Every structure is written in structure tokens, then in C-alpha cells.
Amino acid sequence: MSVHFEERSGVVPCKTPWGSWYQTMEEVFIEVNVPHGTSGKEVKCHLGSRDIELLVKGKDIFKGKLFDTTVSDEATWTLEDKCLIRIILMKTNREAGNCWSSLLEGEYCANAWVQDQMQRKLTLERFQRENPGFDFSGAEITGNFAGGGPDFSSLQK
Q1: Do 62 and 53 touch, CB atoms closer than 8 A?
Q2: Which GO terms describe its molecular function (predicted)?
Q3: Which SS3 state, helix, strand or coil, does residue 5 take?
Q4: What does the pLDDT look like over 53-105, one tens digit per residue?
Q5: What is the tally of structural domains in the chain?
Q6: Residue 121 class from Cβ within 10 Å (0-12 exposed, 13-18 middle, 19+ buried)?
Q7: 151 pLDDT higher than 90
Q8: Collapsing DSSP states into helix, strand and coil, what is residue 66?
Q9: Does the N terminus or the C terminus of the chain have fewer Cβ atoms within 10 A?
Q10: pTM given for the model
Q11: Neighbouring C-beta atoms of residue 3, cutoff 10 Å
Q12: In terms of residue numbers, what domain contains 16?
């Protein structure tokens, strides 16, 4: 596939007071708006497998226990254009049914509509991986998509 599935089909962001977060089957992306001119030295970011903390210019942006576990060795953060912090977390459970309903336990929750759209997106991503010759980027999904959609593994080929 020449273009990544998410680049063609867009993302489903969950808006927050500091920016937004969104997810794929494998990763969680966090985008934090910071004051223009912020330098990397003014950013303190702790990325653990189960917890996260971000301070900018000594001010807590967020801190807490993540919704699910991540691979801390593969987590990264960058400061872009001195006004946007982008954090990428690698999920340990990379199944389509593992749709995070919030970034932190009990905080930055996706509303029901956003959660529904996120789950649809992960299910379509799963279908794309299972059927690499087909383009699902513009597809709509209805019916049983909660938990990653229907399981066709028991069907004979």
C-alpha cells in the first residue's frame, strides 16, 4: 500500500482543553497547543507504560494513569514550530477491539459520538489490514463494529 490508511481516511480526534488526542489500532496520538515561542527546555514530559505527565513552563498540562498500557520504550514527544507538542504512544494491545474511550482513566473522555466514530475507524483499519488489496478509506460501516467488528476467523477459506 503506497499511502497509509489513516492518511487517506482521516482521523477521529477527541477535543480537550489543551488540544486533542486520537488513535489507530497501534498508536495513540496526543497534540498539545502551547504558547508560541515555547522551547524544548521548557517542556518536561514523562512517558511511562501506564502513566503520563506533561509540564510546560512549570505548569501541569495533564498528569495521570493512561487508559491502557503502552510500550514506554517506543513513546516519543516532539515540539513542532515552537507551538505544538506531539506525543506518540504505542499501544501494547493492538487489536481493533482495543478502542480507548479516554486518554487517562476518567479524564479526557470521548463523548458517545466520538467513541462510536473511533471504534468504526479502528474496525475499518482492521478490515484494511486483513484485505490489503482493497481500499476501505472511504467506506462506511454499520452494524456490529463494537469490539473490533465481526470475527470471520472461523470461516473456511
Answers
A1: yes
A2: unfolded protein binding
A3: helix
A4: 999 999 999 999 999 999 999 999 999 999 999 999 999 999 878 899 999 99
A5: 1
A6: buried
A7: no
A8: strand
A9: C
A10: 0.86
A11: 10
A12: 1-130
